[in-house]
Amino acid sequence: MSTREPRPSPESSALISAHGLRKSYGRTEALRGASLELREGEILAVAGASGSGKSTLLHCLSGIVRPDEGVVTYGGEQLGLLPEGRLGELRRSDFGVVFQFGQLIPELTALDNVAMPLLLAGMRRGPAQQQAGEWLERFGVRGQAELRPGEMSGGQSQRVTLARALVTGPRVVFADEPTGALDTLAGEQVMTALVHTARESATAVLLITHDAQVAAYADREVVMSDGVLRSGSDDVVGQEAARREG
């Protein structure tokens, strides 16, 4: 496996904190009192089997889904109290999201996919494309700039997705099984690129994975089971909540 980048100090302050999160879909409890903290510049892996609640946790932390109970705090703001407009603003500026299958816009080139968040933020097309090209270069896919998603390999598409997630300079990247659809080599390339860029820009990463090799790239790992964070010796908040509410 690739050499890891230097790790942040464990004394780094919490950037996002979640306490007592509960979320149900019908009779299914996806989250049952989950709590954790993500620190400035930290790469935190949330591991666990499919259906354990990992993706629901990510969706609550990133403001995509509102929990039924509990509090998510980012930068002094409680996400559950924010209007949709403010949440959308945070997802365009402070949060970057990467899904397993990328979700690139199939009709657009790689360059235009990466430029899209900048255009939505009001940047003019020329500067937006120039900045997008620089990010494609950083992720080693500048040569695919004029290709559409269907014309690229899975690994190339996922690196384009990472470039799009980071092009706005977010403080947090939420990565949901970013290597789940890739072979081992492509997965290592994607994780190496993500970790290197996150370290370089001091971006925090919440990494959702069921793969122990992917989790090994993180500074810290917690394990989710049946909607509760059940282990992770460095995650005292999560353990205490699991004991009280699980």
TrEMBL record:
Keywords: ATP-binding, Nucleotide-binding, Transport
Top-level division of the source organism's lineage: Bacteria
GO cellular component terms, A-Z: plasma membrane
InterPro entries the UniProt entry points to: AAA+_ATPase, ABC_transporter-like_ATP-bd, ABC_transporter-like_CS, ABC_transpr_LolD-like, MacB-like_ATP-bd, P-loop_NTPase
Keyword Ion transport assigned: no
Segments forming domain ABC transporter: 16-246
Classification via CDD domains: ABC_MJ0796_LolCDE_FtsE (cd03255)
Pfam families (alphabetical): ABC_tran
GO molecular-function terms, A-Z: ATP binding; ATP hydrolysis activity; transmembrane transporter activity
Record-linked SUPFAM superfamilies: P-loop containing nucleoside triphosphate hydrolases
PANTHER family: ABC TRANSPORTER RELATED (PTHR24220:SF685), IMPORT ATP-BINDING PROTEIN (PTHR24220)
Identification of the protein by name: ABC transporter related protein
Organism: Streptomyces pratensis (strain ATCC 33331 / IAF-45CD)
